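Notes from the 1:1 (GR / supervisor)

We went over the backlog. Supervisor wanted to see one worked example end to end before approving the batch request, so GR pasted a single chain during the call. The sequence is below; no edits were made to it. Supervisor asked that the structure be written out right there so they could see what the output format looks like.
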Amino acid sequence: MSAVQNWQEDFGARAGELFGAAVPWLATTRRRALARFNDEGWPTTRQEEWHHTTLAALGQTSFSIGTGSCTRARIEALRDGDAGHWLVFVDGRYAADLSDPGVLPGGVELTPLSRVATDHPERLESRLGAETDGSTVAALNLAFASDGAFIHIGRGCQVDSPIHLVFVSAAANGAEFVRNVVVAESGSRATLVEHYVGGGAEASLTSTVTRMTLAPDAQVTHLKLQQESPAAFHLGALDVDQASGSVFRSHSLSFGARLARNDITTGFSGEHCETLLNGLYYVNGRRHVDHHTNILHAQPNGTSREYYRGILADTARGVFTGLILVSPGADGTDAIQRTDSLLLSRMARADARPQLEIYADDVKCAHGATVGQIDENSLFYLRSRGLDEMHARNLVVYAFAAEALARIEDDVLRRRASTTIRQLLPGGPQLGELA
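Structure output shown during the call:
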C-alpha cells in the first residue's frame, strides 16, 4: 500500500473526530484538500520549488496520528519564568492543563482553533484557507488539521507580552497537523512566538500552517523557533496578507529536525507596507534545512528586507530560495535580499537562489549571496588578542550567527535565541563568557 493510500485510509477513519466535522463547508474543504493530495502526492524534485529538497523519505515512513503526553515540568523549563501568554499543544491537540493564556487586554482573543470551529465556524470560513493554497503539503495539513491557535487582536489593541504557542511532538512515529489563524485589526500590535520541540529518537512528522491577516497600520512580529529531534520531519508554511501601512517582521530559527522546510510568503495588498524576513539555521550530521520565501510587492511604496544566515557542519545541507516580485505599477518599491552561508566542513553544502523579478520602473532593489568558510583574517585578529585557535574559531562562528539574532528587537526573545544557538555551536559553554 502506498503512503498516499495510507493517508486516505487514515482520513476515512478519523474524519468524524476532526474539528468542524459537522460543519458542511469545512467537511467539504477537508475532502477537497485530501483529493488534491491523493491526485498529486508529495512534492518531488521535478517541481522547480522543490528541486533541492526531496521528501522521498516521507513516502517510505509510516506515521500514525500522535497521542503522546507531556509533563508540566517540561513546559515550565521552556517558559523559564516568562509569564506572557501561553497555549500548549501536544501532538497537535490543545493541552488546557499545560496552557496559561494569562490576562489579555480587552479586544484580544487567544483560543484553540477547534473551539472557534465548533462555536463560531463562520469566523473561519474566509480565513482557514482552501485546498488550492500552497503545495500539496499544505493541502494535507488542511485535510488533517487537528487544532491550532486562533488569535484575534482588536482595533488599536496592543499586547505588550509575547503570545507563545508551544507545539510538542511526544508520540513515537507520530504525525501532527496544526493550523493557526491570526487576525490583526487596524492599528494593533503584537508579538507571536511559535516554538516546536520534539521527543526521542523515533521519527515524527510535524506539518504546520499559519495564516495571518494584517489590517491597515497593524504591526506583528513573528518568531518561529524549531528545535525538534534529529529524526523529525518539519514542514511549515507561513502566509501573510498585509494591508496599507502594515508592518510585519518574521524571524525563522531552525535548529532541529532531520529535514526542515519553511515556506514563507507575504503579499502587499496596500501601499506603504513594510516587511522583514530574517532567518538563522544550524545543521550538522546529515540534516537538511530549506527556506523558501516569496515577497509580492503588488502595491507602490513598499519596503522589504530579507536576510538569511546558515551555519553548516559535517555533511549537512542548507537551501535558500527567495523571490521578490515587484508587480507592474508598484513604483517606489525598496527591496533588499541577502543570504549568507558559513561552511564548517568541506562536505557541507549550501544552495542559494536569491531572485528578483521587477516589472516596475521606479524601484530600488538589490540581492546577493555568499557561501564560504571561516575568514582567516578574522581568526588572525582574534588570535593576536590572546585567544587560542579553537576559541577564536568558535567566536567567529557565533559572531556570524549573532548578526541575525541582533535583528530580534525583543530583549527576552533575543537572549533566548542566543542561548539556544550557543548550546548547539562548538564550544558553547565558553561562548557565553566570550560573548
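Supervisor's comment: Residues 375-435 form one domain.
Batch request approved.
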